[in-house]
Amino acid sequence: MPRAENSPLTRFGVPLVLAVAAVAVGYQLSVGLDGYFVFLGITAIVAGIALLGLGVVSGSAGMISLCQLTFAAVGAWVVSYLNKIEAPGGLLLWLLCGGLAAGVAGILVGLPALRLRGINLAVVTLGLAAAADLTLIQIQFPGTVDGISIERPEMFSTDREYFWLASIVLTVCCLAVYFVRRSRWGSGWQAVAFSERGTAAAGASVRTSKLTAFAVSAALGGVAGGLLAGQVSQVYPPSFSAMQSLALYVLAIMSGAHLIDMAIFGAILWVAVPELLKRWGVPQDWGFVIFGLLGTHALTTGGNLGTAVRELWRRRAKSARGTAGIELTAPPDESIELPPLGEPVLVVRDLSVSFGEVKALSGVDLEVPANGVLGVIGPNGAGKSTLVDIISGFLPQATGTVELDGGTLNGLSPTRRARAGLRRTFQQDRVPAGLSVGAYVRFVARRRLGAAEIDDALSFFGCPPARTPLRRVDVGARRLVEIVGHLLARPKVLLLDEPAAGLPHEEHVALGLRLRQVPARFGVSVLLIEHDLDLVRSVCDRITVLDFGQVLASGPQAEVLANPEVLKAYMGETEML
Known about the structure:
Low-confidence stretches: 572-577
Distance between the termini: 44 Å
Number of strands: 10
Shape: elongated
Mean pLDDT: 87
Helix content: 55-70%
Structural class: alpha/beta
Strand order of the largest sheet: 6-7-8-3-9-10
């Protein structure tokens, strides 16, 4: 029997056992390695911590940072300064201070990431690394000119002892990254990397997700720099050059540093490749060329060594596991009494928006009743998707009013609208594959959920179990997992943008029977955008029809579908989008 996804053994026991084993291995290596290899081992550990940080910002959060060693320089500078003034606490406390200072610097550097992406963000961070490089050459590190060496703790004064200390610090950093990635922060990083719109629609702050990723990444870089300061005793600027930062980023991409074990493997390569070149009589700078070629291959193919290895294992197990999908064979409980419709909980008045000379919507009114399901249908180009974007806050340039439960939503961001009780799903897949089903549902729900509550909701919609990795879930099932997450947030209204997309046609009506029970089962009213009339008939109490951006008809389902104007609008249409 598989373990529960969130059992204490899975969450804490196994990682802690592995951490103890790693510390023990570090001790054995510190005793058994030759003195020169002890020094190389410390260098690899320093690189491993820096790569862990890059794995957070570039691997998990999907942003480009080419200044990781600049953050390491901040940590080294703080340690050097505290050592020079003989600050109390010793190196371990100084490491923490250096990490915190680098984390603050990471937040400042991360601010441009709120507006910049891709190559623009890369240019900004690389420019910062180059500027820091030139500045360090001018000012040098505290104590360097005076010949003051970094004082190590008495217990770890020799290189062998310091190697063991460094391995302990690396293990602590690995544990921290492991647990943070399984927290709301970590889920936010995965979500924002996959879809910023999906993140905002879940009520999570895109801004917070990006800044926390930069902060954690920079803090790890600062710890790495502080460790390096203790290793070399006196720190010099060439250790933190812009070229080194660029090479480290390329290595992170190539190795797949978002995976903890591959970050450590990448650190071994960081040391092993130049060392082998030296032994073969090849200039060590050629190591940058090798890293560049490997990184270029990873970037152009969209893969990396870590994911390639895991994909190989998945393919071997695929025949036994298969792909998790949906199971909507059993009908829902028909004995649930549907509550009577209440007063409108979502009211839209005179909604209009134009793109240039094109009027996408003009004077649209609609009301979603409490305990009800309102369907919005219309021919292709009628403005349905635009309507959902405006209501959920993704098109703030629209005019008109949107009120939820008597309060206006005008001027609120998508995140604040979601937190106010207005949730939405998307036609496109917005569910990050890096999470498990349960982790994604908890992230979207944004409240404490018991395992039984999650399992019950997933079972009702025929979704895979909570422990299932989303990378093994097909697109149709991911759409249903998205719905479950938003329903468990208990919003006032849920906007469903073609929820049946990606499902087999025979499952549409089965899904409709379940959506029909959403108001009674979850206490959530629904606005349904859909092109499948069978699904609309099985779900909706009332229907609003859009045509060329205007309301063609609105009212009870039977009345609207019998309206001659509605029939005329669809004459010759075989599919409504």
